[in-house]
Amino acid sequence: MNKVLVPNQVYEAFENVKKTLSHVNEDDLSLIFLNIFVFGRSGDLKILKDYAMKNPTKYLQALIYGYTTDKTGALKTILKNWLSEPYVEDEEKDVEMFAERITRFFIQQK
Q1: In sequence order, what are the residues at sequence separation of 6 or more whose Cβ sits closer than 8 angstroms to the Cβ of residue 37?
Q2: What domain of life (predicted)?
Q3: Per the count of CB atoms within 10 A, which of 31, 62, 94, 107 is most buried?
């Protein structure tokens, strides 16, 4: 099976927890993710708990097969936010800032 498509916020929560707990061995990290209802009280763990409550099968599949984010959906959100905001400085500077935002998005997805 392919990686499971999860919302960008869930993808980022998984990645943040893995970075924060990088000192924890893989089995213990798996136990934390499997017991998300116990540990998911705030922050990224709460995001994962809420996702697991609403999508239990997809959550388990993401743990087993891996996960990825819907890059198109995330980019649409970035674009909508940028278009709805007034210029910070001038058009050229805002285009440059938008390009930097898109570049950071793709760097984070690696």
Answers
A1: 49, 52, 53
A2: Bacteria
A3: 62
